[in-house]
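pinning this so it doesn't scroll away 📌
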Amino acid sequence: MVNRCAKIPEADILNIKAPTDHNKISPIGPTNITKPAYTDCKLRIYKLHMTGELQPLPGGAETALHVCFDRAIRMIRQKVKIMANLSEIREQSAKAAEAVCEAAHLRKGDLFVVGCSTSEVVGGQIGTNSSLEAAEAVFEGIHGVLHKRGIFLAAQCCEHLNRALIVEREACEKFDLEEVNVIPQPKAGGSFGTTAYRRFADPVAVESLRQKASAGMDVGCTLIGMHIKPVVVPLRIPVRRIGEAVLVCARRRPKFVGGERAVYNEELM
């Protein structure tokens, strides 16, 4: 039975894509599923989601429709789970950003890099199940903290865009970054990069940060260390996960120079 604690709008269910390759989803081989038949199937799914009452599926291509039905039910269950956890994901993201800012002694004008796999946040495997809803919750939590402190956020895109990053144009100009021409999409750049591009005041895609970030958060093992100034030091903070994703944080430490007689500033260590 579908969890009915959180309701999904009917339009969201009706927008579930009909399968395009029936050989891959139908145990009976190629099957022609007409658009009206698939729409009818989704309407029955919606009634199940809202009331718990399942109507019999129509005849004709019934086996294939059952496969479509099972796929859609799994998608609904996952979306209900995501919607129920959004406030917690937002809160975890904000707490983690606050902790990193404090531990890294960040100042106004610093650059903060975030890599985020929303697939991992919602309990999937990186690169398999991108979620705009989860991306928005993570973005809102982190960006809200950084914006108040005057710290720039750099959102790393996925490897399909060679881990290009989305920053505000002001940050691009301040740190002398090289702009590239791309608009991230959930399946080509990732949901987090896409959300940053949509939510920034004047977004710019850049090829790299040239190791100019002062700290960062890696949500779901996306790898961000190459963007942070040497020497990169891992941070242990109270928040260990965001959603289901493992959280790894880091900051930069100025290099030590001198020898055994040198005296060092402990606040920078």
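📌 and the second one:
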Amino acid sequence: MVEDGLQNPANQEITIPVFLRIAGKYLAIESADYQILEMLRQRYSRFISNDDPKKLWRLRWSRRAGYVVQEKQAPVEISLETDSLLRIGQPGWQTEIDLDRRQGHIIAPESSLVFDCILRALLPHLLQDGLVLHSTLLVDGDRSWICSGPSGCGKSTLASMLPNYAVCDELSALCFEEDRFVSHALPFWVARQGNAPLSGIYLLHHASENSRKILGQSEALRLLVSQTAWPAGPAKVVEQTFHRLVRLVQSVPVYRLDFRPNPGVWQLIAADADDCSR
């Protein structure tokens, strides 16, 4: 691990950590650098928790000086060195996380872009009993809908059209709770806390008219595989994630949604399953 440029003397106290609550899991970030902690408080303000849970993940952040993170950089490298050592990094910063001990060390400059990258890579492990999907999440009372698809399919368009219902854009979490799937907002991009039992999943397509069609389980599974954020390993954890995905398409209706950029599509999204052609 590269240690040059660190500003974290061994005798310097770690300040009060920032606690994040993400889909019911707790993540504590500790640092001797107040600016790093304040950056996290501002970037993830809607996911800050005042709880002091007994079960949590801990990351210690040491500042790396003399390096500025750019928005466009080399791809993030993610690797599992052993069954439990997760490494995440780019030129200029690096993170190692012991998945068994739920502890890790970040060596990086102060940057929300860095922590966004770390969190994206960590989420499938943090939520090992759930799923993380590339999607916009819509919530209305005790119902929610995952709206998924590849880049350019309309996730952000849909979120901007339906600000009263959209609680996050880019990634959403699904957890199996009390014999049903419950969706949870994740802190991307302009996100706020929100969760509700899952009513349906929509695979988005731009079109000139609004329409939806329910998909068979095999087709739904095939399409959702590419929209799932998979853990880096080991094989057993990846297999467990796949089995949860199979259970998801067996439990919840999955639709193809063709839509045009008009808020009127909400009526179709929120319609009961029986109102959809099968």
